[in-house]
Amino acid sequence: MSAPPAEDLVKQWESEQARLRQQVVEEDTEDWQISPDFSGLERVGGVDLSFIKGDDINACAQLVVLSYPDLEVLYEDSQMVTLTAPYIAGFLAFRETPFLLEALQRLQRNQPTLLPQLVFVDGNGLFHYREFGLACHLGVLSGLPCVGVAKNLLQVQGVYKSEEHQSQIAALQKGGDSFPLTAASGKVLGKALRSSDRSSKPVYVSVGHKISLDTAVRLTHSCCRYRVPEPIRQVHAHTHTHTHTHTNTHSHY
């Protein structure tokens, strides 16, 4: 059976995104989220799919679980995978989610006591063309709270790298300072966060599932030793080791 033409696939994926989008929960659902020091949170996960430069088919699907608040690695899973879905901008999740979900399901089967209580996703959540990025997709399908943290600004829904945006970044004085990413509609889709005193470049935080934006920002900051939250930083460290391409591995958005 031949693959459906791209426009058919886009229609199919758009309707699937719209259906799943209805299931996203944009508020705190867990007791630990409401606690000032996240009391009760013991395990945070990080996921990413990294590609070897020049190869858009084979990738390394990675999951790490860290203790909280110490941020020590408790569990690590790397699998080389072959992607079957085509790359279409705005639909990255359809290529990547199945492999990240498999990693979480493997952990659930083999060591359920290590399942993370929240997953950081290297990418976006609601801050997306149709308010349904990778962190939302993985959150809804896994049922776990998820937060999207991107290193680069996705220019969507009227949010641009404008002079105003740059001056807002410059005004972030210290780690924990943030400003909202407001869509043309007036809806706040995420926040730019100065994640540590040491880094003047912000990260872009958005809700994936089962968490409020303010809690997502607070938790992201609490998990940052450097610019990128530790669960995602550890994913990258392990991925580079796994693919043996320190110079070639890069992340796709």
UniProtKB/TrEMBL annotation:
GO cellular component term, pick one: cytoplasmic stress granule
One GO biological process term: DNA repair
Cofactor or coenzyme needed: Mg(2+)
Localization per Swiss-Prot or TrEMBL: Cytoplasm, Stress granule; Nucleus, Nucleolus
Keyword hit for Nuclease: yes
Subunit: Monomer. Interacts with PABPC1; the interaction is RNA-dependent and stimulates ENDOV activity.
Entry protein name: Endonuclease V
Naturally occurring in which organism (per UniProt): Seriola lalandi dorsalis
